[in-house]
Amino acid sequence: MELPHGITGKLAEPIEKILFTEQEIQERVKALGEQLTRDYQGKDLLVVCVLKGSLYFTADLIRHINMPLSLDFISVSSYGDATHTSGIARITKDLDEDIEDRHVVITEDILDTGLTLDYLVKLLQLRNPREIKICTLLDKPSKRITGIRADYSGFEIPNLFVVGYGLDYKHKYRHLPFICTFRDEFIPKD
Ligand code: PRP
User: Fold this and answer.
1) Whole-angstrom Cα distance, residue 85 to residue 32?
2) Torsions phi, psi of 111, nearest 5?
3) Which positions ≥6 away from 66 have C-beta within 8 Å?
4) Whose CA is nearest to atom 7 of ligand 1?
5) Alpha helices, DSSP H, located in 6-144
6) Can you give the pTM of this predicted structure?
7) Which residue among 6, 47, 87, 145 is the one 20 to 30 A from 110 at the CA level?
8) Each residue of 56-95: pLDDT tens digit?
9) Helix H or strand E encompassing 49
10) Does residue 48's CB lie within 6 angstroms of at least one atom of ligand 1?
11) Do 181 and 68 meet the contact criterion of CB atoms below 8 Å apart?
């Protein structure tokens, strides 16, 4: 398969199909940023990036939000190397900012079972923010086992194992500029 950016060798080997190209992602992210600019005009906006997967999405998204905002990071552990959630979530890096009375937008690369965000939203609600909204690049509603819904969503996807643009395969491949599926022999089995 012909891949952009001269992606070859070991980096290219597991890739089956590009689901969203770099250009498609960038266009959608720009539109989301413009939507947030409209919705949060005049408000004290704090963007909370959930490490590590959301790093790329968040960095691109906020550069399309045309107003002052703050950025903070939080890290929740739930998955390890597996593709299925253990359902156990704990904070491994907490926010630095006080969120009381502020407009919080949590940014995620993917909303899957919803367990991570369910845990996070409940935790952050205890700190009395003005409001919490969820902005996810990918939404996989077929996997949801909680009532969590995205307020802003880039793309809805079927139940596929996806990698790239922040999404990892065994902690690697996050830096691919596109989102792709992997060949069957590379996909972690149950
Ligand atoms: C992924 C993703 C979300 C979560 C979504 O993170 O970034 O945080 O899983 O899944 P859920 O809706 O089933 O909870 P992961 O735990 O793989 O960590 P990472 O972002 O550091 O890769």
Assistant:
1) 27
2) -110, 115
3) 33, 34, 37
4) 53
5) 9-12, 22-39, 55-62, 115-125
6) 0.94
7) 6
8) 999 999 999 999 999 999 999 875 555 555 666 789 999 9
9) strand 45-51
10) no
11) no
